[in-house]
Design brief:
The chain is 24% helix and 55% strand. The protein is an alpha+beta fold and 266 residues long. The protein folds into two domains: 191 residues, no CATH class; 48 residues, no CATH class. Strands 1, 2, 6, 7, 9, 10, 12, 13 and 14 form a nine-stranded antiparallel β-sheet that branches. The protein has a six-stranded antiparallel β-sheet with strand order 3-4-5-15-8-11, with no helix packed on it. Strand 4 and strand 5 form a beta hairpin. Helix 1 runs antiparallel to helix 2.
Length: 266
């Protein structure tokens, strides 16, 4: 009976899960991490940049760009001291149900004293673009949160090189229930930041695009589960002895009803 219940559940599980899994296909990815720095003292400032780019859909899905520098010394009759550090993180995950989740953050710090100079800049420094297409019409929940200096947008391809915005949430938490038709789509996000020894700002964003099971698939799954539960209950009931038989077995042989004595004799 366990095998029967598994056979009953398997088609429903396959129907409920396969549709969403096959619907969304990620076609391309563009990740760019970029930071520029200024470091030294008045009269001798070094400027530099640090960057990374990734396009693979299967590797480097959690890239990081990090660095730091520090120094001090004499300048004429005075002195200088300066340091900076930065870290840019990004994460992309393919959800088993057929959507995706992604997040990123920008963290910067710089300090300078006396005649020192230190600054770190990540304007549009943490960028991600995912292009994907849908094979069938599907319902999705697009949810997430963004801070100041970060933005996300979901767009639909309108043809002739034109992308039409579907949602472009303002900073804060958001959630959208979307019905997406078969076609091409693009998700884009960017995070920025800066720090110039006296003040600065960081940023972060996080999103999920989650498929919503179709009502028909949920109904089929619920029906199969119900059949499995009922079948299991019937099996357990049939395996239990009748109350009368249990009572008779506990009696001395000469007190048992005649039909139970005949059964035991067999």
């Amino acid at each position: 009976m366990k095998t029967i219940r598994c056979l009953l559940l398997a088609p429903a599980l396959a129907t409920a899960c396969t549709s969403a899994t096959a619907a969304l296909v990620i076609d391309g990815r563009q990740t760019q991490l970029y930071v520029s720095t200024q470091f030294g003292f008045f009269g001798s400032i070094n400027s530099a940049t640090d960057s990374r780019q990734y396009t693979s859909l299967t590797s480097d899905l959690q890239p990081q760009l990090a660095g730091s520098d520090s120094g001090s010394g004499a300048v004429g009759d005075g002195s200088w001291i300066a340091n900076y550090q930065y870290q840019l993180d990004q994460s992309i995950e393919h959800l088993p149900a057929g959507g995706f989740s992604a997040s990123a953050s920008v963290s910067l710090f710089a300090f300078a004293a006396d005649q020192g100079v230190a600054a770190v800049d990540a304007q549009s420094g943490n960028r991600l673009e995912l292009s994907f297409h849908l094979n069938t019409d599907e319902s999705y929940v697009f949810t997430g949160v963004t801070t100041d200096l970060a933005s996300v947008i979901l767009e639909e391809f309108a043809g002739s090189g034109i992308w039409s915005p579907l949602v472009a949430p303002t900073p804060g938490a958001f959630q959208y229930n979307l019905r997406l038709a078969t076609g091409q789509y693009r998700f884009a996000a960017v995070g920025s930041g800066y720090h110039d020894s006296s003040q600065g700002a960081a940023s972060s964003w996080s999103v999920q695009l989650i498929p919503v099971p179709e009502p028909g698939s949920l109904l089929l799954l619920g029906t199969a589960v119900g059949i499995g539960v009922v079948t299991g209950r019937r099996q357990r009931r049939s395996a239990q002895p009748e109350p009368a038989a249990v009572l008779a077995a506990a009696m001395p042989i000469f007190c048992q009803p005649q039909r139970f004595r005949r059964q035991q004799a067999r």
